[in-house]
Amino acid sequence: MENQALGLAEALQRLLPSEITIKRIRWRAAFDKLPSALKAPWMLDPYADAPFPKAGEAWPDVWIGTGRATLPLSLTAKRRSGGKTFVVQTQDPRWRTSDYDLVVAPRHDGIEGRNILSITGSPHRISSDRLAEGAEGFADVLEPLPHLRVAVLIGGKSRAHDLPEAHAAALADQIAGAIEAAGGSLMLTYSRRTPEAAKATITARLAHLPGLIWDGAGPNPYFAFLHFADHILVTEDSANMAAEAASTGKPVHILPMVATRSADKFARLHQDLRDRGAARPFDGRLETWTYEPLNETERAARAIIERLQA
Fold this sequence. Notes:
The chain has 310 residues and is of the alpha/beta class. Helices cover 34% and strands 16% of the residues. It is built from 10 helices and 12 strands. The chain has a 6-stranded parallel β-sheet, with helices on both faces. The chain has a 4-stranded parallel β-sheet with strand order 1-2-3-4, with helices on both faces. It has a two-stranded antiparallel ribbon with strand order 6-11. It starts with a helix and ends with a helix.
């Protein structure tokens, strides 16, 4: 969630000189599950960042909140600032949606309104400059890898998807076959949600390929993987990873997971990505295609500036 807010703030900063301040908040356990309408700032955990300026300090020009925990604070900021602060909420608030100055919501959530900007996926931190910067520390390892270089982004267990060991084994064998057929190389990273059994199985079945499997130790090569990749394979459980991959302009192949409940929102996202030419279901082949890279985070940042200047 932090990457959504920070990505949008950084996109805004690239267009309009500004200073970014990050506030991380959480509610005391006794109040965390209260409805947003009943929460008050005094209920925040003592170790949370102070969300509002101190007396005499200026209110921010733009406030970007992400996640259910921020909702009552966002509207409090709008009220206490006397309207001086432009309040942006990412994701679908599902509470007083019309009261924020702008809601940047995933198109697959299907919400509409005068203050709603629908985008494909969610805001993120990916930009060409950031990818190039992230690639610098891994160039010696990744640049010599044979083409096709294939970035594989593995998610894991969520409310709608799972990655049991048997399914992980089948995916790994299909990925290995595609890379071997292309004479290519592997750049693989896991999510914190990836089950340990699935991680061990995939690693064992792909370790023979040239490339790098990141085990979570040391600097994160995620940006470098996206920079050096010729193809990107991403499991269907993560809207964020799919949107980030589609911002590169490289073919994005969606890896199937095991559904544990209705995943209509993810299906709508993947259809949106297909409609825009960015993604296709992985069929065991590394077919190449081109499309205009998605630039939804910058589009959202420009919408904020337009409304600020209106």
